[in-house]
Design brief:
about 675 residues; mainly beta; 9-stranded antiparallel β-sheet; 5 helices; 46 strands
Length: about 675
Amino acid sequence: MKKHLFLLTAAALMTALFPLRATVYTGVCGEHLTWSYDTETAHMAIEGYGELKNIADSLWWNKQVIQASSWSTSYKTYYPYNSAKTISLPEGLTKLPNGVFRDWWNLTACDIPAGVTRLPQYAFAECYALKQITLPNSIDTVGPYAFENCTTMVKCDLGKGVKYIGQMAFMNCYRLTSVRWSDCLEEIDGSIFDGEPNRAEYDQNSVATIPLRDTLFFPATFRSGKQISWCIHNNPVIVWNAKNPPASSSVFYNLYDYWNGDFIFGPDVEFVPAKLCQQVRMKKVVLPEGCQYIGAGAFASNNSLDTVILPSTLTAIHQEAFKGCTKITQIVLPERMTAVSSSVFNGCSSLARVHLPDSITTIGDNAFAGCPALDSVVLPKELTMIGGSAFSGIKLQDTLIIPDKVISIGTNAFENWSALTELSIGKNVVLIGDNAFKGDSAVTHITVWAATPPAVSEGTLADIPDSALLSVLPDSRKLYREHPYWGRFRMNDTPDSAMIQRTVTVEPAETTADFTWPTDSAAHSYQIDIYKDGTVFCRLTLGNRGQLLAINFAAPGRRMPQQNTADSSQPYTLSFMVTGLDEASRYNYVLSVLDADGTPLHVYIGDFATTGYPGVVHGGGDEVIPTPPIIPADPEAHTPGTLDNPMVNGTCPDGKCLLDGRLYIRYRGRLFDTMGRPIR
């Protein structure tokens, strides 16, 4: 027995000291391709040209070679390709079959020739010894599972031509630190970095991770919308520069527990797709100039995001875009935005300051709900609608001014504003929703500029104390006193002088202008003369309640001005809309309050410009002091477009006249400009 044991040991030593004779195996692997394998060098060489045949179909590794192989264990027969460490491929190779190098456990290097355009699925799967690889620029597709279970691969350079990367391409590549893909990449088909959490030797917190330290650059050509399941850590930099991806994309959805790196938006980004970075752990968002909108839920639930810088080109942020971003402290919305969408900042519990530009016309439901740190809100002048619960649950401020253009205020809009003491409601508000001011209210003074009491429910004002003082327009006092809900508040015995308008305001648009002016109890009529470029445009004569009595145009073909509905209970202000104005033009006007004899009681002079006119325009008018008895030109008595009493040789009779192409008024020997300022 001992003798036999000695002989076996000696045989083993002889085999180790004097290895078996090197053998070279050969075979056919394509119509014009052959292969040879040297057992001594563990090198596989393929020569020829054309397409490499599929292994399963052709058994191109040769049955005779497999039978002749002497390497075997109780688990598996080791074929030549299992032992091959290197492989050389010919320049004439054009195509690789699926799984071409799968299970080449000892393969450490492989140079693919430039004629190959596609790396097929499972191409290098189970190549446990492959530590790095560089693909030629000719390859435009990396198939699914191409590098699956390459567990020692550290670096992969996909070349400059890859447009598509298939799903699970790097599955279970636990030591991968660098992945470089091309600037023409278009699509990643899902979870390319996925892994199995049950592999104990690589398990970290029960999650398989890939220690990428590279910059992952998504170029302008990238257009994929499929979610990537990221199993990575050590925080690679992600650069998103996709110019035209799908409008809704979840590429980085839920990249939270495995990543805490920098996220950079490149200069070509024109919009942020919906849900792009939802639940992504990121600290800063800086969008480039040229970006136009942010999709719904794009950054929702980013609990690390504390800085957001938006470009001036941004026109819209869609619903829930920043919902639940609990560390954002301030937001400055660009001037081009016209709406704050529903729930866009809902739950931003650290948001303390927000700038709303005057261009905002709509604030959606729950827009700023659940923002308890927000202690000051200035509502935009152009705002027309405030959604339900829009500002519910914020820290509150002591004064709230609802702008004049607001029409409706939603349910629970300002719920729990317990610090609010002063409330001012604009003149156009017609509806205030239920529980709009719900909560322990400290309101002591309400000012309502609307002539008709806004529609409210029993619960709208229920939490405001009866002791609050209500100020309304003088001739609207009776309507408010008799209202079932507004009427419970106390009023002063005399009207608040601040509620009586004393100057003219003009709100021009593209082809219209809305005039609002104070009235006089002795007024018999009102006359508005409008001038363009110093020449007569039109004259309007209105009754003491704003009804149109006469209209004269110096320029033919104009449309009839439109009269706003005038309530007979409003002698203190009147409003009249003039239509048919020219776009991007500047106008002067003289508004005269006349008695029954046509004698001016008050005269207001000002200028305004329709939309698109360059430069700054006054926009309203003040009463001329001293009040001149204006004698306006009669547009029908002269050639259209010509102003009466042109100035001659430095003299100007009392009335209207031109000086160097500009409109002036002369009264009792003194000359006034259109702002009522004395000239001489």
